[in-house]
Specification:
Helices cover 51% and strands 14% of the residues. The protein has 10 helices and 9 strands. The structure holds NADP nicotinamide-adenine-dinucleotide phosphate.
C-alpha cells in the first residue's frame, strides 16, 4: 500500500543511477513537489529530470557535485539556500566500494570512500537536519548496507563505514525525535544496480538469486521513512541474516562470507583476466 508523503522537498545524493534513481522515481510517483538530484554526472541527472517531470508536475533541480570533496556539503547547502528552498526530506545514498586487497595500494580511494559515505552524509544530516529541527519537521534516510552488521572479507573499509552509518543514524534518530526530525537507516542486501559492475565485483552465479531490484529497495526505504522506522532491512532472507549475526561468532560469519563470496568472486576475476 502506498502512503502519501509527509514532506514536500526532497534531496537525493547519488541520484544518477541504481537505488538513488529509483528513490527519485518513487518520490515522483507519490507526488513530491520539489526534488533536488545530486551526483557527478550532469548528463544522467538531466535525463532523469526530464523523465521525472513527465511522471508528475514536479520542480526538479540538478546539482553536479563530487561529494568525496571536503567542501561539497557546504556548497550543496548554500546552493539550496540561495534558491530559497527548504529541504524536509534528505536521502544520503551516494556510494561506491573497493575490494579489500585494492585498499592497501590505493589509500586515496579509501579516503574518498570515507569522505563520500561517512563525512559527507554526517555533515549533510547535521546541516540540513538542524534546519529541519528548527522547524520541528523533517525526514532523513541514510542508505547503509546489511554488511554494516558483521565483518566481511571482501570490502574491509566499505563495511566499516556502513557500520559507522548504522551507529550514527541510530543515535541521531534518538537525538532528533523530540524535534520531530525522523531518521531512518536503510540496510539493503545485494541489490541490482550498476554498483557491482562499476566497482569490479563480479557476482557468482549462485548469489544472483539473492539480488533484489533497486525499485523494491527504494519503495521499502521510503515506506520505512514515512512510518518513522529507525531501521529498514528489505527482504526476508536479509532479515534472517541480520538476526543470525547477533547469535553466532563473527569469526564463523567471516569465514563463511570468505568461502562463499570472496573466493568465488576471485575465481571469476582470475578467469576474466
Ligand atoms: N548495490 C548493492 O548491492 C548495495 C547493497 C547495499 C547498499 N548499497 C548502497 O546503496 C547506495 C547506492 O548504491 P547503488 O547500488 O545504487 O549503486 P550505483 O548504481 O553505483 O549508484 C551510486 C550513486 O552514487 C553516486 N556517486 C558515486 N560517487 C560519487 C561522488 N564522489 N559524488 C557524488 N555522487 C557519487 C553515483 O553517481 P555519479 O557516478 O554520477 O557521481 C550514483 O548515482 C550506496 O551507498 C551503496 O553503498 C548498495
Amino acid at each position: 500500500m502506498k502512503h502519501s508523503l509527509p514532506f514536500h522537498t526532497g534531496l537525493i545524493t547519488g541520484a544518477s543511477s541504481g537505488i538513488g534513481r529509483a528513490m527519485a522515481c518513487e518520490l515522483a510517483h507519490r507526488g513530491i513537489q520539489k526534488l533536488i538530484l545530486v551526483s557527478r554526472n550532469q548528463e544522467k541527472l538531466d535525463e532523469l529530470k526530464s523523465f521525472i517531470t513527465k511522471i508528475n508536475n514536479i520542480d526538479v533541480r540538478c546539482i553536479s557535485l563530487d561529494l568525496s570533496e571536503a567542501s561539497s556539503p557546504e556548497i550543496l547547502l548554500h546552493t539550496v539556500q540561495s534558491w530559497g528552498w527548504e529541504v524536509d526530506c534528505l536521502v544520503n545514498n551516494a556510494g561506491f566500494a573497493i575490494r579489500t586487497e585494492d585498499e592497501f595500494n590505493h589509500p586515496e580511494k579509501v579516503q574518498q570512500m570515507i569522505q563520500l559515505m561517512a563525512t559527507s552524509p554526517l555533515l549533510l544530516s547535521q546541516m540540513f537536519g538542524k534546519l529541519m529541527a528548527e522547524k520541528n519537521h523533517g525526514y532523513i534516510l541514510n542508505v547503509s548496507s546489511i554488511v554494516g552488521g558483521f565483518p566481511v572479507s571482501s570490502t574491509l573499509t566499505y563495511a566499516a563505514i556502513k557500520r559507522f552509518m548504522n551507529a550514527f543514524s541510530h543515535a541521531l534518530s534518538y537525538e532528533w525525535r523530540p524535534c520531530k526530525v525522523f531518521v531512518t537507516c536503510l540496510q539493503p542486501g545485494a541489490t541490482t544496480s550498476s554498483f557491482h559492475q562499476k566497482n569490479n565485483f563480479p557476482v557468482p552465479k549462485k548469489w544472483q538469486k539473492f539480488f533484489r531490484p533497486s525499485e523494491q529497495i527504494a519503495k521499502e526505504g521510503i515506506n520505512g521513512l514515512i512510518r518513522k522506522k529507525r531501521n529498514v532491512i528489505p527482504g526476508w532472507e536479509y532479515k534472517i541474516l541480520f538476526f543470525i549475526t547477533h547469535l553466532i561468532p563473527h569469526s564463523w560469519l567471516f569465514d563463511f562470507h570468505k568461502s562463499c563470496w570472496r573466493d568465488r568472486r576471485d575465481k571469476i576475476c582470475k578467469k576474466n583476466s
